[in-house]
Amino acid sequence: MKPHLTFFCQLETPVLQALFSVPDIAYLGELNASVSLGILDLSQERAEVVKRLNEAGVPVIAWLLLPKEQGHWFSLENADLAFDRYQNFLAWTETNGLQWAGIGLDIEPDVSFIEEFHRLSVSRSRILMKILRQVFDRRRLTRARKVYRDLILRMKADGYKVDTYQFPFIVDERKSSSTLLQRAVGMVDLPVDREVLMTFSSYLRPYGPGFIWSYGQDGASIGIGSTGGGVDLGVLETRPLTWKELSRDLRLAWVY
């Protein structure tokens, strides 16, 4: 059985337009592949790219994101902003007549938290105290989980399938019936139609392939490679995979 491929794309609008301006866009249809498109903005230019993919018969998943100053990814910190972002997305979709195969929620720690953690050597006590406060604040997780679950129900009522893009460590939380990691770093475990585990081996060289072997069997889908674009925090190596590395990861992912 052939795997179903979904290409993640998180590019700023000018580069995005250039990428999808070539005739080769039809090749995505021949592959029966989908595109999960990062919604970095709600511009007319980005809408035109979506329309081009719609016309080519390529299924497009709306990968919802927030502005960097609001955390960029969805987490416990910005749950209240998720509904507003979705409402604005719906208005943009209706105005431009866009078609979506589903909606993706990227669940990761807040950008500011990652930046603080990266500066651990100069603000160690501050970040550790913040983590401790978050670990003991169980109500924060309960409240955010309810907000996101209500949002997911709304999305489904609107006719959308919902994906989450999760760090694989959420699997360990689930197996151990724990919420420690979620409370500590702001992740949240959510019931959705499809969970994609982000096993990006490019961030874990040279041990990346083991990441896929360890968690591949636990995900409905597996994310490999590196999405590029988006927010570059300078925390991890983001050099793209070579073709040899990518083909290796594709073969490993195919096993599951």
Apparent shape: globular
CATH architectural category: Alpha-Beta Barrel
* pLDDT < 50 runs, ≥5 residues: none
Characterize the largest beta sheet: strand count, sense, and whether it forms a barrel: 7 strands, parallel
Helices and strands, in order, run as EHHEHEHEHHHEHHEHEH
Protein architecture, described:
The chain has 256 residues and is α/β, with parallel strands linked by helices. It has one domain: TIM Barrel (Alpha-Beta Barrel). Helices cover 45% and strands 13% of the residues. It has eleven helices and seven strands. It has helices at 13-19, 26-30, 44-55, 79-96, 111-118, 124-135, 138-157, 169-175, 180-185, 208-215, 243-254; strands at 6-9, 34-39, 60-64, 102-106, 162-166, 194-198, 221-223. Strands 1-2-3-4-5-6-7 form a seven-stranded parallel sheet. Helix 3 links the parallel strand 2 and strand 3 (60-64). Helix 4 (79-96) packs parallel to helix 7 (138-157). The protein is globular, with a radius of gyration of 18 Å. The termini are close together. The model has no long low-confidence stretch (mean pLDDT 87).
List the helices and strands and how they pair.
Elements: E1 6-9, H1 13-19, H2 26-30, E2 34-39, H3 44-55, E3 60-64, H4 79-96, E4 102-106, H5 111-118, H6 124-135, H7 138-157, E5 162-166, H8 169-175, H9 180-185, E6 194-198, H10 208-215, E7 221-223, H11 243-254
Parallel strand pairs: 1-2, 2-3, 3-4, 4-5, 5-6, 6-7
Helix pairs in contact: 1-3, 4-7
Q: Which terms would index this structure?
A:
7-stranded parallel sheet; 256 residues; TIM Barrel; globular; alpha/beta
Provide a short characterization of the protein structure.
The protein has 256 residues and is an alpha/beta fold. 45% of the residues lie in helices and 13% in strands. The protein has a seven-stranded parallel β-sheet.
